[in-house]
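User: Sequence recovery, please. Input:
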């Protein structure tokens, strides 16, 4: 009977994509964390980029951990354990993870857990402190005459370097004490207001800077 009917074509359904591990047919979720290389804790806004590394951690749970059964495509549940079935299903997953047979079958999973604490090396209280002793604010500097730049540095950690800038032009670095400089103002510097800036970095990338306004004439 069907042979006598005209052929019909069906439009392929649009593919459904999801960022949920379980809905994509996988049971191992991988999440990338930004970790501070020094403290091995979660990076913060104060962690210098060069001290941040990205690390993947595996996350294996039952489906109710990732999916709200009342809204499967929506956001994952904030407190999945409130579901009456969660603990029962989760205990089964934990039992499977601990099963020696899983290991024998080479279903190797990482047991490493991501850190929960935040970087406590790169903090405001751990920043070095620098003060410019000489020249004083408003001092007049003469062109082509060396001017002593004297600074005081305090730091919880070892100092890596201290940099001198005239306006935004880098002049010199000091890697060891004493952190003092001899600045000769360029002959082509425009008369008027300028700025001397000192930046200090400790061994872990914490830094501070201080500026003093001076006149050239």
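Assistant: Recovered sequence (217 residues):
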């Amino acid at each position: 009977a069907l042979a006598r009917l005209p052929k019909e074509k069906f439009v392929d359904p649009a593919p459904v994509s999801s960022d949920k591990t379980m809905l994509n047919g996988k049971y191992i979720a991988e999440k990338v964390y930004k970790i501070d290389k020094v403290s091995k804790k979660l990076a913060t806004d104060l962690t210098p980029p060069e001290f941040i590394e990205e690390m993947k951690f595996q996350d294996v749970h039952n489906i109710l951990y990732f999916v709200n059964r009342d809204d499967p495509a929506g956001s994952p549940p904030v407190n999945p354990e409130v579901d009456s079935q969660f603990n029962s299903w989760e205990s089964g997953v934990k039992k499977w993870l601990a099963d020696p047979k899983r290991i024998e079958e080479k279903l190797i999973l990482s047991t490493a857990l991501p850190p929960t604490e935040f970087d406590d090396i790169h903090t405001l209280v751990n920043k070095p402190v620098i003060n410019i002793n000489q020249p004083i604010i408003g001092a007049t500097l003469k062109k082509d005459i060396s001017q002593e730049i004297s600074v005081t540095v305090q730091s919880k950690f070892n100092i890596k370097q201290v940099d001198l800038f005239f306006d935004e032009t880098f002049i010199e670095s000091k890697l060891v004490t004493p952190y003092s400089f001899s600045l000769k103002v360029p002959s082509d510097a425009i008369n008027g207001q300028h700025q001397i800036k000192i930046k200090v970095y400790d061994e872990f990338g914490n830094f501070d800077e201080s500026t003093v306004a001076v006149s050239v004439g």
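The chain has a mean pLDDT of 89.
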